[in-house]
Automatic annotation (TrEMBL):
Name of the molecule in the record: Uncharacterized protein
Origin species: Polypedilum vanderplanki
Protein localization: Nucleus
One GO MF term attached to the UniProt entry: transcription coactivator activity
Any single GO CC term annotated in Swiss-Prot or TrEMBL for this entry: nucleus
Origin: domain of life: Eukaryota
């Protein structure tokens, strides 16, 4: 039994695709094609890859908005605590 040596440039390209989620995205859509057997698999592939990319962008955007909102909540909690302490000092005078 003989093994073919791995073509380094092909392996580098495979790693690049895997790193950026391309292989995973394609595998998921191809599995969906196998399961659903759409009339036009290429059109289905194109539509589903685009949908996947749009969803990823939307998720990233929402994650950034959540992080910003959490920072604002933290800032407002600090401000609220400061104002409560100021009010307590004012009421004790």
């Amino acid at each position: 039994m003989s093994f073919k040596p791995i073509d380094e440039s092909k392996e580098d390209f495979r790693l690049y695709l895997a790193k950026h989620g391309v292989l995973d995205a394609l595998t998921k859509v191809i599995a969906k094609i196998q399961r659903l057997q759409p009339e036009n698999p290429l059109e289905f592939l194109s539509a589903n890859i685009c949908t996947s990319l749009c969803l990823q962008e939307t998720i990233k955007d929402l994650e950034m908005k959540i992080a910003d909102a959490n920072q604002e909540i933290h800032r407002l909690q600090k401000e609220n605590e400061r104002l409560k302490q100021q009010q307590m000092r004012f009421n004790h005078k």
